[in-house]
Specification:
By secondary structure, the chain is an alpha+beta fold. It has 20 helices and 26 strands. Among the domains are: 131 residues, no CATH class; 40 residues, no CATH class.
Length: 865
């Protein structure tokens, strides 16, 4: 339900204004970094509304006392208690910045090498009391490049943490990170270097977070972006997570909410629901279990969204690499279709969403609530997939609706992140007047004397009928946070969430951080089922278990009265009546549809077969809805081959294809996202989209044969060593000679089928640590993460000796003399090479020349090739 009965109550009582505080004339600086999934929290005024009376003016809670009103420079607004900066860099990256700079100070300018990742160029967005000063890694507005990270201000280092505009690097001022917003618990981000990495490892298990594979560029060269999670050792020493022996570097966490992460999908994919096992397989390999080569867009490994999503689908986040192409990026140019496009290691949710929107075969992951707040769902630009949690025992395809997210069980929506604020030191150890232990329950100051009087209303959080401290304050406390006002910020957040859980319909909770979290996320106590904490170390996924803190009254309130965005109508069902948004290509480039308009389609639009302009960012027409659907039957499969080749002929001087129609060749066929439709896209189709119309599975052999048949010959112009005559579909064996991009696009082909292809095919299943049974099986994720399905020559979704034999027959190894025929001269030539121990006589490719090679050669010779 979407009605907000609390808002109706407030309006009825005339409580629609907001009071101003009268804090100190010099505000305090609080610095945070981390999650993009929780970005909306730090953009919302509610996050800094006073709930605990931080400034001691007796205006708080329902009074709407804003503690961080924006001001651009001194003399500062007298109502400012805080200035809050927040770097949107991803949860793990924010955690690393807390690790590096939570107990040490930064001085110097933006970009200083000694600052590590704390530079403006790594931030998807940086906020200063909600004002943007960095966007997509580019400084703007009040950014000050003389400060670390281009922070507009610094704080004094005398223990006060008061704001200063002084940029003198004399040890009197600097920047420190006070907290990290993380979509998941801290231990979900910490690597375990003991043991061997495995794709399904749970947090804390041996090998967790330690996948050593790095990304590649689109040409197969090393891009160097790692997939490992985070270490406890930073630029300035180690942090401590041993709560039994706390010190001044101990990291504590404040739980705030469960954050549902949606599996987002471009309408071009043509998919509405998916099994969790298939979603896991796709994110681990870049392809579905069927072999279909969709484009799996991913965040970088420092992203909490990636961490929550991957752990939610039973995948170690360090294995959630998708296409594994390109370095980490916050550059919008890498979101756009064209030469700079990359699908992996997106440095923010906005980059993830823009890339998936521009990727016709794209699936990705982002915060569910962003479908509303960023309008990609409510604006019918992209959709979300319903997921059946089959690996967790689920039987129902569940969308991230409010009721499904509150359920959180196997048949609900259970891909969620238990979001926390991480900080060095315990904010509960702050003075009670700053929200620490012993904080007094808030009251309504009816007579304005700024003191509680008998009979005045108060929020009875502990439900004992007496206005008192919420809990006792012990004599021994954990180590406190260094910045008392940062502790007050955390406590203000925590106390308001706890109060909302205790009495959700209390007017004192209006305008508070707790209310904001309840309207946009899932408060912990409202969830029926939650991820097991701690996760089992020997499991293959994190199970969902009944929530020990479940509050039935809060559940009912959130479901029926809160107006939570996940309860809006657009989340309930897949909108199949629209086709999404037209992708944006890099401007200033002539693409394959440019000739149709005299070269004018270089930065604003595509061109359909009737000559009409299809403007970037506009609504996609239904004819072009499904990428690859050249024959317009509503699906992408083997039956599209003939029309696809006809479209290719059109773009290459042949007969017009579907002239006068709304079909757009590039929107239908630009599978590799370079902006064009060309032979590389045809190879992509044959290698990864040639789906059998009966089984629904990829058949590479049939795909390459279909391309050649439709073309009427050797479409790719492939040659075969020794001058062998080309046969229909032989190009399927051209898989090596150039560097591969496994799972992304088949760029390894070099135009020649030879011994290099033979060796590449055999390497997929021999001496491969991921393959232990003699053949590489694509439906086994444990094996699929370690081999290239492009080496499946006979189209059975396995790579084994049959594929080696298929390549040998295409090459015709039995024609050892290379004279174009198979006869006794070849036997003599082979035996001469065999007697000399030449590598060419190693027919079975085991690295040895022995009698097994004689038998292998004679088998090929007897078969005629």
């Amino acid at each position: 339900m979407t009605s907000n009965t609390r808002l109706l109550k407030m309006v009825a009582m005339g409580m629609v204004g907001a009071a101003a505080s009268f804090a100190s004339a010099q505000p305090y600086l609080v610095n945070g970094a981390g999650a993009t999934l929780l970005q909306a929290v730090f953009e919302a005024p509610a996050s800094t509304n006073d709930f605990i009376d931080v400034d001691g003016d007796c205006l708080y809670a329902i009074d709407g006392d804003q503690l961080a009103p924006f001001d651009s420079g001194p003399p500062w607004n007298a109502n400012q208690q805080w200035q809050l900066t927040y770097r949107v860099v991803g949860s793990g990256n924010g955690f690393a910045e807390l690790r590096d700079w939570g107990f040490s100070w930064m001085e110097g300018a933006d970009g200083d090498a000694g600052h590590g990742t704390f530079v403006s160029g790594t931030s998807d967005r940086s906020l200063w009391s909600r004002d943007i000063f960095v966007d997509a890694g580019v400084t703007q507005g009040f950014a000050n490049v003389n400060n670390p990270g281009a922070n507009p201000v610094r704080s004094l280092r005398d223990g006060s943490y008061l704001v200063t505009t002084d940029t003198t690097n004399d040890g009197t001022n600097g920047v420190q990170v006070d907290f990290a917003s993380i979509d998941v618990p801290v231990d979900w981000f910490v690597t375990n270097s003991v043991g061997s990495p495995i794709f399904f490892a749970n947090p804390g298990a041996e090998g967790y977070g330690n996948n050593p594979v790095t990304s590649v560029n689109k040409d197969g060269t090393d891009a160097g972006q790692g997939n490992k999670l985070k270490s406890l050792s930073g630029l300035n020493g180690n942090i401590n997570v041993n709560f039994a022996s706390p010190d001044d570097r101990t990291v504590y966490s404040t739980a705030i909410a469960y954050v549902p992460v949606a599996a987002i999908v471009n309408y071009g994919v043509g998919m509405q629901q998916i099994d969790m096992s298939n979603l896991r397989h796709a994110n681990a390999t870049g392809r579905l279990i069927s072999g279909e080569n969709l484009t799996v867009v991913t965040r970088d490994s420092g992203s909490g969204t990636r961490n929550a999503f991957m752990n939610g689908i039973g995948l170690d986040p360090s294995w959630g690499r998708g296409e594994n192409v390109g370095p980490k990026t916050v550059d919008t140019a890498n979101d756009q279709v064209g030469a700079d496009y990359t699908p992996s290691n997106k440095g923010g949710s906005s980059r993830m969403e823009a890339t998936t929107l521009n990727t016709r075969l794209g699936i990705g992951h982002t915060g569910a609530e962003r479908g509303d707040s960023k309008s990609w769902l409510t604006g019918n630009k992209m959709e979300v997939l319903a997921v059946r949690a089959d690996i967790k025992g689920g039987n129902t395809y569940a969308r991230p609706t409010l009721i499904n997210c509150l359920d959180g069980g196997p048949d609900g929506y259970n891909i969620t992140g238990p979001g926390v604020l991480a900080h060095i030191g315990d904010p509960k150890s702050a003075p009670s007047e700053l929200g620490g232990l012993g904080w007094m329950e808030p009251f309504t100051d009816g007579n304005g004397n700024c003191a509680y009087d008998d009979g005045e209303e108060f929020l009875d959080i502990n439900d004992n009928g007496v206005r008192d401290a919420v809990e006792n304050r012990p004599s021994e406390l954990n180590p406190a946070m260094r910045n008392p006002q940062a502790a007050a910020y955390i406590n203000n957040f925590r106390r308001s969430v706890e109060a909302f859980i205790a009495v959700p319909d209390a007017l004192e909770n209006f305008f508070t951080p707790g209310e904001f979290m309840a309207l946009n996320y899932i408060l912990t106590a409202a969830a029926v089922n939650v991820p097991q904490d701690p996760p089992p170390l020997n499991g293959e996924f994190i199970p969902t278990v009944p929530n020990p803190a479940f509050n039935a009254a809060l559940y009912e309130f959130v479901l029926n009265e809160s107006g939570n965005v996940l309860g809006t109508a657009r989340f309930q069902t897949f909108n199949d009546s629209v086709a999404g948004t037209v992708p944006t290509r890099t401007a200033g480039v002539a693409y394959s549809d440019s000739d149709a308009t005299g070269g004018s389609a270089t930065g604003q639009y595509y061109v359909d077969q009737a000559g009409n302009q299809i403007v970037y960012g506009g609504s996609m027409n239904l004819r072009n809805k499904i990428a690859g659907d050249f024959n317009n039957d509503g699906s992408r499969d083997m039956d599209d081959a003939a029309e696809m080749i006809a479209a290719w002929n059109d773009r290459n001087g042949g007969a017009a294809w579907q002239s006068g129609t709304a079909a757009c060749v590039e929107l239908l066929g630009d599978f590799n996202n370079d902006g064009n439709f060309d032979a590389a896209d045809v190879r992509y189709w044959a290698d990864g989209l040639a789906m059998d119309t009966t089984t629904g599975a990829l058949d590479r052999q049939a795909g390459f044969e279909a391309v050649d048949t439709a073309f009427g010959g050797n479409f790719f112009g492939t040659t075969i060593v020794n001058g062998r005559a080309y046969q229909t579909g032989d190009s399927r064996a051209d898989v090596a000679g150039n560097l591969p991009t496994v799972g992304f696009a088949p760029v390894g082909a070099d135009g020649v089928i030879d011994n290099e292809d033979l060796l590449y095919v055999k390497a997929q299943f021999t001496n491969n640590p991921f393959v232990t049974d003699g053949e590489a099986n694509w439906d086994d994720t444990a094996e699929a993460v370690g081999f290239d399905l492009s080496a499946d020559i006979n189209g059975d979704l396995k790579v084994n000796s049959d594929d080696v034999l298929a390549v040998q027959r295409i090459i015709c190894v039995a024609d050892f003399s290379g004279d174009g025929s198979v006869n006794t001269q070849d036997v003599l030539a082979f035996l001469n090479a065999w007697n000399s121990g030449l590598d060419s006589a190693d027919i079975n490719l085991d690295g040895n020349v022995n009698t097994q090679d004689v038998l292998a050669f004679l088998n090929l010779w007897n078969s005629g090739c």
